[in-house]
Amino acid sequence: KKMAQPPKHCGSREHMGAGKAIAVLTSGGDAQGMNAAVRAVVRVGIYTGAKVYFVHEGYQGLVDGGDNIKEATWESVSMMLQLGGTVIGSARCQDFRTREGRLKAARNLVKRGITNLCVIGGDGSLTGADTFRAEWSSLLAELLKTGGITAEEAKKSSYLNIVGMVGSIDNDFCGTDMTIGTDSALHRIMEIVDAITTTAQSHQRTFVLEVMGRHCGYLALITSLACGADWVFIPESPPEDGWEDHLCRRLTETRLGGSRLNIIIVAEGAIDRHGKAITSDDVKDLVVKRLGYDTRVTILGHVQRGGTPSAFDRILGSRMGVEAVMALLEGTPDTPACVVSLSGNQAVRLPLMECVQVTKDVTTAMNEKRFDDAVKLRGRSFQNNWNVYKLLAHIRPPSTKSGHTLAVLNVGAPAAGMNAAVRSTVRIGLIHGHRMLAVHDGFEGLALGKVEDISWDKVGGWTGLGGSKLGTKRTLPKKYFEEISATISTFGIHGLIIIGGFEAFMGSLELMEGRAKFEELCIPICVIPATVSNNVPGSDFSIGADTALNTITTTCDRIKQSAAGTKRRVFIIETMGGYCGYLATMAGLAGGADAAYIFEEHFSIRDLQINVEHLTEKMKTTVKRGLVLRNEHCNENYTTDFIYNLYTEEGKGIFDCRKNVLGHMQQGGAPTPFDRNFGTKMGAKSVAWITGKIKECSRHGRIFANTADSACLLGMRKRSLVFQPLTELKEQTDFEHRIPKEQWWLKLRPILKILAKYNIELDTSEKALMEHVRQKRISQESM
């Protein structure tokens, strides 16, 4: 006998949507990643048993009805993931702003039995949705009166649930760390900045780049951090009066320091302290008139909205889509309209109107020239970025020295973003008055004395460079204790900042063990995780993983395109990661894979068989291609060749197979905006910590650090950057397989399977609860 209602606690989501209907629309300016969100809403909606409708052309389609509102199928969202913009169209709609228009829209929904609306757009679109919901019962009453709908229909649609997702490249919505499209827009901007840098250097030019953001300086700010710009103009924090002199002084200093170019970033909404606009042409004229530099203006415009979504935006859109469907189906007449978003690394639900209010408060603060409040209201991540930018761009190294010496080294395999971390470590160290040393070739270089002073100018332009400029090795320090101790005392090193992967973590633990015998090793140590594998304990992300993920995703797109052309073809792709399945899983989500085999989730021959059968079924639909990812060490016997052979044999006459081993291309390339910015912030944070530790451990001019908390790893945990003693992390590590015992991203695996049409349990036991924006702002510790 079947249970009519699954018990609430078991997390069964498969019949949750039976008898319900969901409509999804995209509105306002388009943003890359909207399609990923639409795809997830459609597929997860269908998975729960609900009917899902596309609303074409945003609110205009909702008002016009007819063919604009169409039922969606599983296959109708195939191949959407890698497309920019929004496939279902978006329009600015005047009609919906009138009561007349909203009456038509309500009738169109009621006639189709749709009581759940998912809106993907900016704050304007979401405010419109809230108004619609507030008026719902009065709209129904009016339609009943005029005979637009029957009493029966009105009863069935007595209330409307609304969930919003923020799609906006400006990242201008308060309460959300990242809006859908922001990361992709940064990718477009950085591609252009990198391209402009090469031509500017050839001619010793100054470039003024104008990026989007009428009321929000997020894109401009992150761009400046990620490319090491000389100056940035953002609407939230206009420059002090007399900025013209300061700017010219800055540019001259950079040139005297040996740089062949200057980059100035201007947000389109930039203003001065008196609210007067600062345009890119104003800045250009100033530089030409005062300094006579050859200056060019580039306005990036709509390029920033275009192109394929980044891996992050696809995963963000997919995660938010799942969360939106859950929030809609769990909604009651009493739950306020909510927005689903990411805070740090967690999915959260926030009351829509609170977010809209805080977003409006920022604009009000700017209009009333309360600029400090405007920056605060943008949230702590924005504040943190702004503070790091000011440190790196506006403060010159002091003439008085601290008397302390810090050494920085790279350990393990190269990872994109290592150089950005080294650059900010060196520059922030110099700002603190320290002597900074660069160690070449990891622990081995430290033993062999490959150490040299590194200056402010030496690290100029490093943020955009992939790989490791210092050189890096996997060698561990244990066998070199005597030599390393000698180097430490020869150069008078007071603190070590070690940027690298699992070897950086292991090696630092070895240095701590060596403290008992070698007093020289009793100095503060800070580890910054940097590896494409993302397998370092104590951090949700490591520098370089985002770049590798984007490389894999781009490759998967190309391979899928090839498979779509040949039809009936399955590709098996092997990714890096050691024993850690992060890259395979996340690339599976971002690339729309049918399966991703990883070490952490045991699989048997029966599972492989189920996957083959699943693909056989898929070949009967309109989507005649498959994509299977395999982590390099997921199983020593089920190798890539074995899986390829198995699929080839079992798929005979139904599909053929191809295999690709991606290899070292995953370690290369220019770092993504995330890795540049993450590296920059981690470097800055580590120097501040180690400076404090050196002071703490100083006795009569000597440094003696022997406590557990004098050797820490700086990691990103859920919502903040935290320092964790290495010895504590030991407990959380599986040393044999070089992975953390618990990994947050394993919770995303069910989403991967549901989006690939597997009927499995979606455990949402870690429910995203409603949070309040106001209290959240105040209570959070600063990053």
TrEMBL record:
This protein's record includes keyword Transferase: yes
Enzyme Commission code(s) on record: 2.7.1.11
Keywords noted in UniProt: Acetylation, Allosteric enzyme, ATP-binding, Cytoplasm, Glycolysis, Glycoprotein, Hydroxylation, Kinase, Magnesium, Metal-binding, Nucleotide-binding, Phosphoprotein, Transferase
InterPro entries noted in UniProt: 6-Pfructokinase_euk, ATP_PFK, PFK_vert-type, Phosphofructokinase_CS, Phosphofructokinase_dom, PKF_sf
One of the GO biological process terms: canonical glycolysis
Subcellular location: Cytoplasm
Catalytic activity line of the entry: beta-D-fructose 6-phosphate + ATP = beta-D-fructose 1,6-bisphosphate + ADP + H(+)
Described purpose of this protein according to its UniProt entry: Catalyzes the phosphorylation of D-fructose 6-phosphate to fructose 1,6-bisphosphate by ATP, the first committing step of glycolysis.
HAMAP family in UniProt: Phosphofructokinase_I_E
Protein name: ATP-dependent 6-phosphofructokinase
